[in-house]
Amino acid sequence: MEMFSPVGDQLRAEEMKEVSVFEVKKVRTGEKRRRKDKGDPADLDGYMGPWREYEDEVKVSKPTPEQMVILDEQFGEKLKAKEKKEDDTITESTILHVENPCDYLGRSYLHIRQDLDVDLRTEEPPPKCFSPKKLVHTWVGHTKGVAAIRLFPHSGHLVLSAGMDSKIKLWEVYGERRLLRTFVGHAKAVRDICFSCKGTRFLSCSYDRYIKLWDTETGECLARFTNKKTPYCVRFNPDEDKQNLFLVGCADKKIYCFNIDSGEIVQEYDRHLGAVNTITFVDGNRRFVTTSDDKSLRVWEWDIPVDMKYVAEPHMHSMPAVTLSPNEKWLACQSMDNTILVYGVHNNFRLNRKKNFKGHMVAGYACSADFSPEGSLVVSGDADGKLTVWEWRTTRIVTRFKAHDSVCISCLWLPHETSKVISCGWDGKIHLWD
Questions:
Q1: Torsion-angle region of residue 241: left (phi > 0), alpha (psi -120 to 50) or beta?
Q2: Global pTM?
């Protein structure tokens, strides 16, 4: 029990003033700070009123207009020097990891092989697909986590990986499964990558606020673009006659359309209320769908900066990953409430309530899902590093197994295989499952 002396109690009583039975107000010690005289209210220019200054107030002098000009010049030079220094440090280079990138006929690694058990040139998917069961191969090369993987268009004989170590790597899927080339040119982690329709070029966007165009075969950086905003996703226009245009979804809530030939922004789509996470082309590439941190889904006509469809319900969560089905009729959206929601492309983007895939844990992570080539199975990674496979018709879980030591952020089904899936995770590894 705390004890007080009579002298201490008296001093404390002098310091405290009783306002009521339940309140005690501390008495202010020392002199109160005085304000200047408010002046005569009749004097409009001299009257200061309740806004008058304190007598002991010290003013900080403002620079004169001449001094402001000098300061602006000095700070402007420092800012330009800083930007130039940042540009100078980002030098693009490439590393070839194979002795000879061409075969005995002089064909580069972009050439689609024909000496395999599976025909990589056909457009027909396998008649029936099955869930993968065992690990076949592991690609190791990234020193940090892998953020995204992309298959070579149509054939899928090459896989491109974007790493958090700011490097991009190209790997063989068939044969010796070698590391072919490393692309170095970003100062920070690479967020997203995208092949052109023929695969000869690809785009990469990074947290260093640059979007870069690369030659897949030579490794040369063909162009660099920036709008001083952090890009979250990048997509080529899939049409062959529009390969000089690409879209970038940024953290400033806007979608920008860049022209590769001029290097300028030719269109802005500014309707979202949060950072743009995904861009997906639908309906014969005449329209594209975007999702954002504002928990909405918007549909746009190409080159028209007003959304034609806006989907936002009170129960909706953010959807940071979207995948188009092989028949282009459905959009599988990874929702932050640990479900995969399905929207119909041809029925005015209405939610299909019968197709609701659950059982995995993805809250807080942009884990992308994918379809089997004929559309009978859906596969997705999760925050625990597991791969989950569902049956499309019944939404029943077919299999679930541990794939990575950390978050399994992306998975892709090989377009001509019945059960081969490539997955990547934040443990820096890329796995091939069969």
A1: alpha
A2: 0.81
Ranges assigned E (strand) in 197-296: 201-206, 211-215, 221-225, 231-236, 245-250, 255-259, 265-269, 276-282, 287-292
Residue type, 37: D
Residues 352, 390, 194: CA angle, nearest 5 degrees = 80
Delineate the domains of the chain, giving CATH numbers in brackets.
92-102+118-433 (2.130.10.10)
Closest CA to 403 of 135, 129, 131: 135
Gap between the Cα atoms of 223 and 232, Å rounded:
19
- Closest by CA to 378, choosing from 362, 393, 361, 366, is 393
The distance of Cα 256 from the centroid of its chain, to the nearest Å, equals: 15
Block means of pLDDT (10 residues each) for the chain, 434 residues, are 52 56 64 82 81 78 82 78 61 92 88 92 93 96 96 96 96 95 96 96 96 96 95 96 96 96 95 96 95 96 95 95 96 96 95 95 95 96 96 96 96 96 96 96
